[in-house]
Amino acid sequence: MTQQSKIWNDLKSDWARLSDQHLRDLFDTGTRDVGYTAALDDLTLDFSCERIDTLALENLIALARASGLEDAIAAMFNGDHLNTTEDRAVMHVGLRAIAEDALMVDGGAVADLVDPEKARFLEFADAVRSGQVSNAAGKKFTDVINIGIGGSDLGPVMAVRALSEFRGDGPNVHFVSNVDGAHLSDVITGLNPDTTLILVASKTFTTIETITNARAAKRWLQTNLSAKDADQNLAALSTNLKATADFGIPAARVFGFWDWVGGRYSMCSSIGLSIALSVGADNFNEMLRGFRAMDVHFKTAPLAQNLPVLLGLIGIWRRNIMACATVALLPYDQRLEFFPAYVQQMDMESNGKRVTKGGQDVPHGTAPVIWGTPGTNSQHSYFQMLHQGTDIIPVDFILSAQSNSDLTDQHALLTANCLAQSQALAFGKTSAEVRAELLAKGMEPAQVEDLVAHRTFPGNRPSTTILQRAATPYALGRLIALYEHKVFTQGVIWGVNSFDQWGVELGKVLALEVQPLLEDGADLSGLRASTRGAIERINSLKA
Ligand SMILES: O=P(O)(O)OC[C@H]1O[C@](O)(CO)[C@@H](O)[C@@H]1O
Description:
The chain has helices spanning 3-18, 23-28, 54-66, 69-77, 110-130, 154-162, 181-188, 208-224, 227-231, 241-246, 273-300, 307-321, 339-351, 383-388, 411-427, 431-440, 445-455, 473-494, 505-514, 529-542; strands at 37-40, 43-46, 104-105, 108-109, 143-147, 172-176, 196-201, 234-238, 254-256, 326-331, 369-371, 395-400, 463-468. By secondary structure, it is of the alpha/beta class. A six-stranded mixed sheet has the order 1-2-13-12-10-11, sandwiched between helices. Helix 13 links the parallel strand 10 (326-331) and strand 11. Helix 12 (307-321) crosses helix 18. It starts with a helix and ends with a helix. The structure holds 6-O-phosphono-beta-D-fructofuranose. 6-O-phosphono-beta-D-fructofuranose (F6P) is lined by residues 149-152, 202-204, 207, 210, 263-264, 349, 501, 504. 6-O-phosphono-beta-D-fructofuranose binds at residues 149-152, 202-204, 207, 210, 263-264, 349, 501, 504. Its main location: cytoplasm.
């Protein structure tokens, strides 16, 4: 038996001990006040409401160690080609490092590549904000449209929304991702092409949705401006400089990055230009500082105090030991409304894998389904199921101590709701409590008995609360890096390559094959009945 399988067995024994213990009882022992939180400055991870104890935690840390997590972290910072199927380094940490970190990739200093390009795109952002870079007629850009999808969209759209308080007099930043023409069409309606700057964001510059939308947007500019003037309203963010040139974007308007930055880890590269345009270079740099603080912590903190490691291990416990297939990520922060969608790609595209790096079947469940929306809205939607449904759905709560709006007096209510929900999930309400409460209200005993089962909350439903002082650019960077490294930790334990995404290829290829078959008179005879039937029905509904 390998050391790892022994530890997996130990963890199963831990669960055998813990599975019939209620969080109420675990708290009643009075031993959960210490040892169930970890902090980095003002950021605290509170996992006291997880169905775990210190022994199980020790075994999880042993599992991380036996899986080679410490070496893997060192290897990432060392520029090793951890993305084995694409033979690439995994160096997104280099995008927010400082020169003194002396990171190297493929034989060269990361800072030599990153720093000049970062300076270029941040200078451009501030020049657009000040009006120094303007349209051909010298008018200031009022609006920016970022056209991109997946990692070239989700990080920027999330961060621009999260940091809207820091926008100052920056332009309005809009996002178009879907190849559904309604997306672009809805965004450009009401915008003035003359003063709209369009960013085409695509690592590969081959993604069909993005290139199709970019072509349509370019036509929109050229119909309204001269072809030459339209060039002033375009920029590209990509690693594929040949394709951006072929598309007709002048080199001075192309901001690059490198193949060792995965799409879903790219928002600190030039892909983040829309963020910098929205909040300015200083705030963007603050965000990078927050990222780096978590990077340094991940690299140097002992496993038992390492926040991303602990969050990753709690996820392993929930997914592999408690057999929970989904996780609800619930920010109690309206401006983090797109954070769950961002983490969804980061987590599920990274670890949604069924074979190990060596090509063997992974013997465990991997990436859980990540989903969620801001509290308190979610409470009035699906919390019924979280509290009384048949499945146990662990929750990550995210909360700031300080309000991020002018209506500071509402923040106590928001905070109270977050704390109340983790309490209700963990401790529930027993049938005895329900019975006593209803009888005290004067209800007839028979009626009380009819209602008891319906009004009982089983509790014992796990959650972790991530608390920070305030939702600043620095805090956002730190929070994102916390989740990035959590995903890394889990990928190492499952033994998968967290940095490729072959699973998205087949659908892309098939879409290109199906597209011509949607034309009138196309020969459908070679198709399987389901696709053929669907096309025939679509054709009959077209007119
Ligand atoms: O930035 P690109 O190359 O247009 O890719 C967009 C997205 O497409 C994917 O390759 C697959 O959907 C993602 O990993 C990536 O973030």
